[in-house]
Design brief:
The structure holds two protein chains of two kinds. Chain A is an alpha+beta fold. Chain A has a four-stranded mixed beta sheet, covered by helices on one side. In chain A, strand 3 and strand 4 form a beta hairpin. Chain A is elongated and about 50 Å long. Chain A starts with a helix and ends with a helix. By secondary structure, chain B is α/β, with parallel strands linked by helices. Chain B contains 19 helices and eleven strands. In chain B, the strands form three sheets. A five-stranded mixed beta sheet of chain B has the order 6-5-11-8-9. A four-stranded parallel beta sheet of chain B has the order 3-2-1-4, sandwiched between helices. Chain B has a two-stranded antiparallel ribbon with strand order 7-10. In chain B, helix 5 crosses helix 6, helix 14 packs antiparallel against helix 15 and helix 16 runs antiparallel to helix 17. Chain B is globular. The chains are: A alpha+beta, B alpha/beta. At the A-B interface, helix 2, helix 4 and helix 5 of A face strand 3, strand 5, strand 11 and helix 14 of B. Bound molecules: flavin mononucleotide, iron/sulfur cluster and FE2/S2 (inorganic) cluster.
């Protein structure tokens, strides 16, 4: 179901725990990395691999905000909206991206490249305002930084 | 000022390499503990240090360790809480990315003290690159015989794994964290039983914050009394504070417990941005009561002093706001956070945070109704002390304290008042 390398990774992960089910969060990351989001088949397959019921996996996926059950853009632009970032202009950063890419929060550009998201505190409060692109952090971002960043990814 | 935990920060991550860590004094405490200390003696030393948990609740660490039963049919676990999701806090991030071995060494010593052969580091999913740093560091520790079977010939075995969270603040709460680690939704468990007795997979489990565990090697090397003497009588040692918001030089700073808040702002952080006036500080992460400028002048950063000022030291996330800040807006922002992060398990928190936010929304449009300020206060009261876990209180306290201290910022949002002001202008 996953690539051979990822199957091996999952086998290894399962050995970390006395209970297979504990590997469900890491397994979902593998699925998401391979398919861009967690597909119906992923949910079924992970359930089977970890001795869980399908609805048990579904329950977990929907609880955690870092998983998506629908296709999303290749680059998730995640702007932190929480207090420390808000105090230093996070809203302006989000608005700038909205105008630049002509999408609203939660939307994806037509070419499927970018999804704009507002997220809660990313643990970079002292480096605010903060933006995470997929897993990459960008600290003390300005609107010019955002322009450079987006051009670089286009 | 003595620094304990941040001595390798200037190496900007080079101490992630085990050789650099060793050259700078690392992996001396573990051999010492294994050779010179009985497990109980480690716990005694931690008790002497007056170390209190750095994750937010400030529970005495030695006492927590003492609750773990000596004999247990089920395996015991050490779990490092690296979920770091309390808004305003970013200290565990630097402790892990600049000096991962320090915490790992502390965890192995904790495992030895508690008779636990397995530990997990539960790290927030967003810190993926730090997860990779930790995995590399753990692999190096295995290679050198600090982890695995028969560590340094002592007969003690210990395995360590990193486990990623996936974006849920509630998983920082220790019992929700354990549920999550078991592969479930992160709903908190009823306490008691406490995790120290019935925790992960039903076994006795100590959950400690990154910073708490990173202190342990230093207590072994220099003694509990030494550590305690760095701070105040009841709050031993040093503490990392993340300072964010309207200051010239935000960042993570290690200072002795009892350090004046204004010194932290003026010395470490170079004062308020643009030389403006201080308006308010949230001293311990977004969930604690706000302090006004007058209170800030007097308060020292230790558990007792901050409590005496009517707030809490919490996680050490210091959010500074100058005179341009609107406390209505800042409190609404925090309320959005708690509404978003409420796990939905119990009604007062799930419904209460939504209602709070609804009232905030109309007040934001300057369409507040007469009595809305009282309504906010009252709604918070319906959550406070009535929810299943501490997230409910975390949502309620900021609202109540903000209304008490900055009522004018809320009153301005009542439509009726605007009409009155308009009339007065006519
Ligand atoms: C809603 C909520 C979120 C929490 N988040 C964290 C967190 O991100 N990191 C942390 O170490 N402790 C967090 N805690 C505190 C933990 O429940 C627990 O007290 C702590 O990990 C114990 O470690 P310590 O004694 O070393 O502080 C949180 C508590 C609550 C109620
Ligand atoms: S207080 Fe909130 S977070 Fe805690 S159990 Fe209830 S709904 Fe969940
Ligand atoms: S508030 Fe944005 S990273 Fe913490």
């Amino acid at each position: 179901m996953f690539t051979q390398a990822n199957e091996t990774k999952l086998d290894e992960l399962i050995t970390h725990y006395p209970v297979k089910r504990s590997a469900v969060l890491p397994a979902l990351y593998i699925a998401q990395e391979e398919h861009g989001y967690v597909t119906d088949d992923d949910v079924k397959y992970i359930a089977q691999r970890l001795d869980m019921r399908v609805n048990e996996v579904e329950e977990v996926v929907t609880f955690y905000t870092m998983y998506s059950r629908k296709p999303v853009g290749q680059y998730k632009l995640q702007v932190c909206r929480t207090l420390s970032c808000a105090l230093l202009g996070a809203e302006k950063i989000a608005e700038h991206i909205e105008h630049k890419l002509d999408i609203g929060i939660g939307e994806t550009t037509k070419d499927g490249k970018f999804t704009l998201m507002e997220v809660e505190c990313l643990g970079y409060c002292d480096l605010a305002p903060c933006l995470q692109v997929n897993f990459d952090y960008h600290e003390k971002v300005t609107t010019e930084d955002v322009d450079g960043l987006i051009e670089g990814l286009k | 000022m003595t620094k304990v935990l941040t001595n390798r920060f200037h190496l900007k991550g080079r101490a992630c390499d085990i050789d650099v860590y060793k050259e700078t004094g690392g992996y001396q405490a573990l051999p010492k503990a294994l050779k010179e200390f009985q497990p109980d003696q480690v716990i005694e030393e931690v008790k002497k240090s007056a170390l209190r948990g750095r994750g937010g609740a400030g529970f005495p660490t030695g006492m927590k360790w003492g609750f773990v039963p000596k004999e247990s049919k089920r395996p015991k676990y050490v779990v490092c809480n690296a979920d770091e999701s309390e808004p305003g806090t970013g200290k565990d991030r630097d402790l892990m990315r600049y000096d991962p071995h320090q915490m790992i060494e502390g965890m192995i010593i904790a495992g030895y003290a508690l008779g636990s052969n397995t530990s997990y580091i539960y790290i927030r999913g967003e810190y993926w690159y730090i997860k990779e740093i930790l995995e590399k560091a753990i692999a190096q520790a295995y290679e050198r015989g600090y982890l695995g079977k028969n560590i340094l010939g002592s007969g003690f075995d210990h395995d360590m794994y990193v486990h990623p969270g996936a974006g849920a603040y509630i998983c920082g709460e220790e019992t929700a964290l354990l549920e999550s680690l078991e592969g479930k939704r992160g709903h908190p468990r009823l306490k008691p039983p406490f995790p120290a007795v019935v925790g992960l997979y039903g076994g006795p489990t100590v959950v400690n914050n990154v910073e708490t565990l990173a202190v342990v090697p230093h207590i072994i090397m220099n003694g509990g009394e030494w550590y305690k003497a760095l701070g105040t009588e009841k709050s031993g040692g040093t503490k990392l504070f993340t300072v964010s918001g309207h200051v010239n030089n935000p960042g993570n700073f290690e200072v002795p417990m009892g350090y004046p808040l204004m010194s932290l702002i003026n010395n470490e952080c170079g004062g308020i941005t643009g030389g403006r006036k201080l308006k308010a500080v949230i001293p311990g992460g977004s969930s604690v009561p706000i302090l006004n400028a007058e209170e800030c002048e007097k308060v020292n950063m230790d558990y007792e002093s901050v409590a005496a000022a009517g707030s809490m030291l919490g996680s050490g996330g210091v959010i500074v706001m100058d005179e341009t800040a609107d406390i209505f807006e800042s409190t609404m922002n925090i309320t959005h956070f708690y509404k978003h992060e409420s796990c939905g398990w119990c009604t007062p928190c799930r419904e209460g945070t939504r209602w709070l936010y609804k009232v905030f929304e109309r007040m934001k449009r300057y369409e507040g109704r007469p009595g809305d300020v009282e309504l906010l206060y009252d709604l918070a009261d319906k959550i406070l002390g009535k929810s299943f876990c501490a997230l409910g209180d975390a949502a309620a306290m900021p609202v109540q304290s903000a209304i008490k201290k900055f009522r004018e910022d809320f009153e301005r949002r009542i439509k009726h008042n605007l009409v009155q002001i308009g009339k007065a202008a006519d």
